[in-house]
């Protein structure tokens, strides 16, 4: 049995609280392609994928976080959907793994992946039917959730700005103290060198 070749493609995307991402790529036989994305805390994420059929070839899909927790796992996937809610701000990974028997000459497979985040991931029609809401009320609910996600985005950005400012101020203070310490060391070393040379020259009777 030949050794499977593994090719990993990493795509890092800046995640917003609400958004839609779509991508189409070709998966080579016995390879793996992964897509990583940073997502905020308490964000609903949904995905839809479709894998081109190929005789004798199988494709597995895995969705994990940075801690290795499996949020979605399906073997021999052809098409399907997944949905989960993020518990922490983390990097989430979607991997497609091709498996081809050594007796078959594999071909590349076309894979389509669409992901939605936040408001875009919610199915407001189903919520409206369950709560018996009118179309206008459903739209107002969607706009309310969108406004809340925007507020959360600004809050997160402000928090990150404060953290970066604190880090910058702390770094500046440490650099200042280090510079003062280095200056004191240089002054002390120069003073010691002058006194030592003066004593040396006096001992040699080169100066009075």
TrEMBL record:
GO CC annotations on file: membrane
Domain GOLD: 32-142
Localization per record: Membrane
Entry superkingdom: Eukaryota
Protein topology in the membrane: Single-pass type I membrane protein
Stretches that traverse the bilayer: 175-197
Signal sequence region: 1-22
Keywords linked to the UniProt accession: Developmental protein, Membrane, Signal, Transmembrane, Transmembrane helix
Residue runs in coiled coils: none
InterPro entries: Emp24-like, GOLD_dom
Family per record: Belongs to the EMP24/GP25L family.
Protein name per UniProt: GOLD domain-containing protein
């Amino acid at each position: 049995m030949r050794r499977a070749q593994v090719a990993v493609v990493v795509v890092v995307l800046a995640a917003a609280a609400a958004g839609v991402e779509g991508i189409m790529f070709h998966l080579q036989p016995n390879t793996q392609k992964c897509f990583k994305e940073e997502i905020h805390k308490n964000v609903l994420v949904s995905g839809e994928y479709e894998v081109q059929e190929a005789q004798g070839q199988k494709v597995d899909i895995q969705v994990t976080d940075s801690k290795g927790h499996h949020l979605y796992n399906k073997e021999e996937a052809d098409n399907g959907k997944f949905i989960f809610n993020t518990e922490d701000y983390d990097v989430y990974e979607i991997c497609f793994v091709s498996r081809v028997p050594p007796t078959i000459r594999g071909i590349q497979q076309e894979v389509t992946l669409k992901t939605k985040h936040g408001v875009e991931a919610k199915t407001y029609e189903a919520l409206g039917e369950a709560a018996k809401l009118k179309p206008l009320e459903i739209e107002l609910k969607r706009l309310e959730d969108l406004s809340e996600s925007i507020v959360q985005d600004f809050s997160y950005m402000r928090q990150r700005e404060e953290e970066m400012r604190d880090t910058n101020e702390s770094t500046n203070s440490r650099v200042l103290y280090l510079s003062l310490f280095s200056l004191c060391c240089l002054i002390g070393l120069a003073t010691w060198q002058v006194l030592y040379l003066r004593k040396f020259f006096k001992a040699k009777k080169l100066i009075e």
